[in-house]
Task: inverse folding
């Protein structure tokens, strides 16, 4: 909240000169571009994510088990890495068009990569797993009854999907899409690779090129406003509905066994997404990494892997616990201030990380000054993991909160009443009644936070202790100097490390399917 | 199933404990030094550097310094704008001693914000040409990055080329590739043109470039060269070391560098555009003398060979020999406009490019 506060404070000293330039020459295009990109990415990620989630959660077809975890992997690829690999392959001077020119003499009919279509596709390829993971959780916890209900009404799988599963999973899907929207709004690296100007481009331009941080923060507050509006609309629209599910049951006996053409269409669709979102960028990175393997695969490198892994693990545990407490608090105390606190604490995800990092730094410096006045050395706080973890908490609370909160919808108020009447205290209710039901939500939250922290760059760069490097920092340093061949190995490592929690999650949640 | 959560809480407790221990360690090491920080400069404590020059480009330089002097150096890397903001917010309590960037604009900005210490240094005055450092020595260049014209050896004869300005001529309509205007290299190039021609004429030049573009601006210098090789365009503007890297991978690269603006010519700026990677001493450094010693050492003979050499940049001191490979790209006259203008004119340059439709 403090970080957001310092962003909003900027509104009091307007840099009118810079702003009027932005307004006149850049803002209209940037606003239009941002809107298009957000809508395009939201729709594409939702369609891909929900379809895949439903297929792997309630249907049965060949390779289903493999796809159910493999389709999560693209989440571990930083957006700008995917963008670079994609552009490198499909632009005019890339191998694909060169090959086509070799065959047909011309490739002028090939769609331009540097376009709205290109950037939306890439953005969706890295972001659909957020929707996939959360929607899958919804379909799994809907339980057997909802599927049986559809089957007993004689609905085909597709009809059952549209008439039963989809409406019942709505808050989950909207929650996932909201994360996608916030990620898209906050992205800088991906759009920069495509030279596609959005609001974040303006923020960076004002700050780094026009040397006006105030103007940058003012553009950032427009972003925040947009997210607040989206959130309010979302809250309003779900307020009247209930999504509790009284009984948990294994899905395995009642999966839709797809047959014939449908069966192969499902496999083909999963394979297609997997190919574009994972195989293609991995191969590209692999061909870059190979020649440098001998040089870069040293103890230094494993140091990066270790620090990344431990950092992401700490952050995952801490943030998931905080989000759980937050969701629990919001449940037992539904007063307006609580709601407000919960909402603002999840806003940090929509700001470009750099802006949030700088917003965080003001309160950190303030505390440092106090400490110094009190005779405590300045670096007591700064440059410690505590600060890093706190900063990650501000940034990723939304990611952890959304899935946990949604699973809380599964618990009817009458369950709480029953528990209380049995003499359980508040914490006992949380432990013995809530936890078993929201468990999947917590696991989902943990995976999301783990992977996000691993990819995170601006906050890590800014708050890390001296000499502390993560894989993402390594990728950034090498790629910002244009050394993609050497940036490929740490990028691959991020994906491999990201595999660990994804595998664990799927193993845990699918155990009794 | 239920065991997951208690396990999670347990491991969290352990991790918090670990974090506390880490904090504790940091505390101890700081206690030792901060008390004495203001009285005498303690020799044992490492110098702290904030750098927007990437780790792999400065680590070798620092390693050599530690080897020669025994002074340890700790550093963090980040974007220059972020580091400047951090210095501002930390104020007097900053741990930083030295600030390094990869352009003059950000050094000028840091100096203008009162974050850098004016130095009295004969070493810098002897080693670094006047136009490549600040008037008050609040910052100095340490290596030169030249931005020049690259062309296809298959489709362009060097005689067709003359100056940056001439890339806007009709002859190049549909044959020019440029990197996006968001990169500071292009911003300082246009700032230099403004210093030479004024805003009105410069805007015409930039508009003529935009008019000649074969494709929308590309996201980096390497892509510009790849586009020329692939035949999408014939000429472009790039930093020389990117050319060096492509050339190292492919010795038969059908590209060559051209040094523009070498002849005194009507309507053309003088000399090849150069920017610097450079450094300054942080105003609130607790050990300004040691910090100055490091900056001076980086401008001296020993360090110069590797500071720029690791990235095929040019040494700041004209007396230092250039790496033979780099030298093979040809010798050139560089622009002698004072680089302090990079900061003063950069916002104007950015806005001008926005107006001219160069994105």
Result:
């Amino acid at each position: 909240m403090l970080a957001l506060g310092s962003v909003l404070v900027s509104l009091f000293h307007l840099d009118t000169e810079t702003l009027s330039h932005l307004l006149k020459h850049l803002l209209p295009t940037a606003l239009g571009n941002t809107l298009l990109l957000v809508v395009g990415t939201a729709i594409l990620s939702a369609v891909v994510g929900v379809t895949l989630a439903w297929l792997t959660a309630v249907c049965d077809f060949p390779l289903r088990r493999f796809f159910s975890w493999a389709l999560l992997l693209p989440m571990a690829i930083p957006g700008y890495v995917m963008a670079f690999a994609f552009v490198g392959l499909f632009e005019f001077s890339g191998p694909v068009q060169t090959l086509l020119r070799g065959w047909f003499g011309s490739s002028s009919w090939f769609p331009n990569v540097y376009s709205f279509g290109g950037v939306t596709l890439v953005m969706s390829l890295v972001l659909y797993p957020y929707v996939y993971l959360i929607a899958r959780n919804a379909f799994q916890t809907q339980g057997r009854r909802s599927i049986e209900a559809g089957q007993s009404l004689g609905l085909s799988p597709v009809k059952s999907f549209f008439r039963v599963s989809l409406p019942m999973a709505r808050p989950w899907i909207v929650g996932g899409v909201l994360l996608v929207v916030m990620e898209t709004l906050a992205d800088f690296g991906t759009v920069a690779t495509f030279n596609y100007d959005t609001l974040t481009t303006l923020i960076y331009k004002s700050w780094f090129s026009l040397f006006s941080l105030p103007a940058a923060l003012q553009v950032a507050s427009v972003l925040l406003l947009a997210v607040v509006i989206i959130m309010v609309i979302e809250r309003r629209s779900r307020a009247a509905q209930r999504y509790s599910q009284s009984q948990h049951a294994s899905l395995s006996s009642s999966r839709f066994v797809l047959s014939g053409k449908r069966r192969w269409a499902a496999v083909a669709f999963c394979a297609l997404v997997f190919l574009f979102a994972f195989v293609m960028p991995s191969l590209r990175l692999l061909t870059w990494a190979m020649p440098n393997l001998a040089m870069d695969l040293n103890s230094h490198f494993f140091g990066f892997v270790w620090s990344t892994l431990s950092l992401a693990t700490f952050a995952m545990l801490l943030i998931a616990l905080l989000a759980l407490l937050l969701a629990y608090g919001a449940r037992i105390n539904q007063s307006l201030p609580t709601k407000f606190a919960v909402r603002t604490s999840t806003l940090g995800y929509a700001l470009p990380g750099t802006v949030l990092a700088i917003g965080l730094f003001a309160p950190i410096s303030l505390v440092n000054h106090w400490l110094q006045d009190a005779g405590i050395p300045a670096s007591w706080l700064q440059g410690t993991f505590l600060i890093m973890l706190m900063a990650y908490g501000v940034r990723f609370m939304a990611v952890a909160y959304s899935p946990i909160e949604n699973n809380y919808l599964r618990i009817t108020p009458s369950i709480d009443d029953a528990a209380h009447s049995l003499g359980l205290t508040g914490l006992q209710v949380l432990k013995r009644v809530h936890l078993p039901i929201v468990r999947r939500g917590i696991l989902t939250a943990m995976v999301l936070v783990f992977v996000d922290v691993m990819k995170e760059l601006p906050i890590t760069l800014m708050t890390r202790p001296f000499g502390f490097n993560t894989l993402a920092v390594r990728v950034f340093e090498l790629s910002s100097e244009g050394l993609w061949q050497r940036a490929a190995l740490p990028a691959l490592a991020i994906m491999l490390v990201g595999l660990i929690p994804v595998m664990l999650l799927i193993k845990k949640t699918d155990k009794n399917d | 199933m239920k065991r997951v959560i208690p396990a999670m809480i347990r491991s969290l407790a352990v991790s918090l404990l670990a974090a506390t221990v880490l904090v504790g360690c940091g505390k101890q090491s700081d206690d030792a030094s901060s008390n004495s920080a203001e009285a005498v400069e303690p020799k044992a404590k490492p110098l702290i550097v904030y750098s927007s020059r990437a780790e792999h480009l400065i680590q070798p330089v620092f390693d050599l310094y530690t080897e020669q002097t025994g002074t340890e150096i700790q550093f963090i890397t980040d974007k220059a704008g972020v580091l400047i903001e951090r210095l501002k917010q930390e104020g007097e309590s900053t741990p930083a001693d030295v600030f390094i960037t990869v352009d003059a604009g950000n050094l000028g900005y840091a100096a203008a914000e009162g974050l850098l210490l004016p130095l009295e240094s004969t070493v810098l005055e002897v080693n670094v040409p006047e136009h490549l450092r600040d008037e008050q020595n609040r910052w100095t260049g340490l290596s030169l990055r030249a931005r020049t014209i690259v062309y296809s050896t298959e489709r362009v004869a060097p005689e067709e080329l003359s100056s940056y300005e001439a890339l806007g001529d009709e002859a190049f309509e549909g044959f020019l590739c440029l990197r996006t205007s968001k990169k500071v290299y292009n911003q300082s190039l246009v700032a230099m043109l403004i210093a030479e021609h004024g805003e009105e004429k410069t805007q015409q030049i930039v508009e003529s470039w935009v008019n000649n573009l074969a494709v929308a601006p590309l996201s980096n210098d390497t892509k510009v060269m790849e586009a020329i090789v692939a035949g999408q365009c014939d000429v472009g503007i790039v930093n020389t070391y990117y050319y060096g890297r492509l050339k190292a991978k492919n010795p038969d690269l059908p590209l060559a560098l051209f040094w523009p603006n070498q002849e005194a010519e009507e309507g053309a700026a003088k000399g090849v555009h150069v920017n610097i990677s450079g450094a300054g001493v942080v105003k609130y450094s607790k050990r300004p003398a040691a910090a100055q010693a490091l900056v001076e050492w980086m401008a001296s003979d020993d360090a110069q060979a590797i500071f720029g050499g690791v990235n095929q940049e040019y040494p700041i001191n004209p007396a230092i020999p250039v790496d033979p490979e780099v030298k093979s790209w040809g010798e050139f006259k560089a622009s002698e406009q004072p680089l302090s203008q990079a900061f003063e004119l950069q916002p104007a340059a950015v806005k001008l490019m926005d107006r001219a439709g160069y994105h």
